[in-house]
Amino acid sequence: MPKMLILSRKNAFKRPKALTFLLSSGYNGSILRRKKSRLRGFIMKKILVSLLALLLLLLLPSCADTASGDPQESQTIIQTEDTRILLAENGTPLYTVVFPQKSDLKTEAAAQNVQEGLCALTQAKFILTDDWVDRDTDPDAFSDYEILVGGTNRSASSITPENTGNDGWWVMKEGKRIVVNAVSSWTLADAADYVLSLCSFEEGKLYLNTEGCKTEYREYDLTTLSPTLRIGSYNIWLGGNGVGHNMDILAEEIKSFNLDIVGLQEVDKNFERSGYQDVAKLLAEKAGYDHYAYTAAVDHGDSQYGTAILSKYPIKEHEIIRLTVGNGHEPRAIGHAVIDIGGVLIDFFNTHLSHESESSRLVQLDEIAKATEGFRGFIITADFNTTAFIGRKTFGDCKVLNKGQYKTFLPSETAIDNIIADSGWTFLDSGMNPSWNSDHALLWAELKYQAE
What pTM does this model have? Predict the structure, then answer.
């Protein structure tokens, strides 16, 4: 740049050879004056052109910096209006929804709920992605424009507000990021619902009101359950095949054990073989259970086959979690019920694993373990069709009731039915009832929650 400036000055003030010739040739003055006038104009034009070129060169670097800057930075002008954050404009999302790569099903569901809710509010196609980054990459180096759901690897997710209790949740703004998190996966769903309630759509723009960000205090205390719970697991054999599909007989057997909650397997709904009965509904009514939830693993439209949960306590929520099966194998699923016991919520899982192959069952066992991650005080009832997990750490520190002492599958005398409980539970009493109303015996246990 300085070199160009010196050259411009030299060219502007050097006496041209044409002028030297005219001065020495004796031309008359009028011609010489006209020539001088033209020459002055020429010189002035050269000076102006040089100055303009210099000005352009000085301006170009700053223009280049603006053009090559981070496009996210230009958005900061419109990102925040007073206490509102702009999430989308004219159908274009400005934020991405991020959840932990290693997360349980509840966390993934909460993140999906946020993403789908935002899409529904504005019709913008918000992206849902996990928090994976390359090993040598700083997770915080990614775009700041993220809605973090659950304990992601971004530093903002590690911030826990005070006064959350042992089961609270929070929604907060950390820099440009929005943090949606909770102490447990279960209450994360409430945080996800709440962050959507803070959103409003106005004139093609979707805003989040940061004034509404808050921390919700919650205490989760299963020790208040009084006095104990009686749980049962019962494979009723092809919808009651052992008793000619007479629900009165099965209902009386279940009722005689005074069970608070029972998980049933091989439950028909509108199948020809069981007289087109709704078996779960009938057993609930006849055995004295006000609440039940049905999980259709096999669904043929009008007729279904699967598992059921009967409960004396209100079932607040119920979800179906599909399990992986081998080619040509019968579909399998987990029924997950959230049950309200005097204001305390417990998570109750019931399932029936594949009979076709051990390899399929081992995969399904891992999927059950993942499904129960993040839940405290959960209970699992199942016909596992295997004893392979006994003595292993498939379910971590959970309590396993049947370690071989109850041969619940009567034809081969194998201990394939079980009740598994979170480590906070203690088994006080247990037993089985080999009535031959089914090819499986009813397995039962009395539990009390005694965690610290």
Answer: 0.68
